[in-house]
Amino acid sequence: MFIFGCLLSVALLVGVDQLTKWWSVTQLAGTDGIPLWKGVFELTYVENRGAAFGMLQNQQWLFVAVTLVMLALVGILLFGSKAYRHPLSVGAGVLIIAGGIGNLIDRLVNGFVVDFLNFTLIDFPVFNFADICVTVGAAVAVIYLIFFDGKQAKESTNGTEDDQLVMGSDDET
User: Which of the residues 17, 131, 170, 171 is marked catalytic?
Assistant: First the structure.
């Protein structure tokens, strides 16, 4: 049930990402964008052929390779070990995998990533839902590593029950 829940969550997040990008292509491409909060935030269609801040333009093979390696590593951590079944680490893994897949689909299908969320107040790079998933997932992973990783081993050596910290510890499917 654990793996099914994770895969369903990833599929839903990838679906939201692809739906919002489809909307962006059909509604924003060829326009000046839609200001939601003038001078602060707007929806703007951008074809991103690089990484954040436009770095490494047109290096799609590199982004595809790095994404596949990252997906494999996070997948192994998430599905290969009960040690990382804490709700925060699972949530982080699901978000990172979903965001990686969302942008990977764009790179493989279009040769670029569709970005459309434009925080104009600080001239931040235009981004998308998949980018949010990866960023939030990475932040949650850091929080997990700083505050929760290793707590299970410490608690079990003290003789306390640590099952509440491990999500899905007995249910592998």
Answer: 131
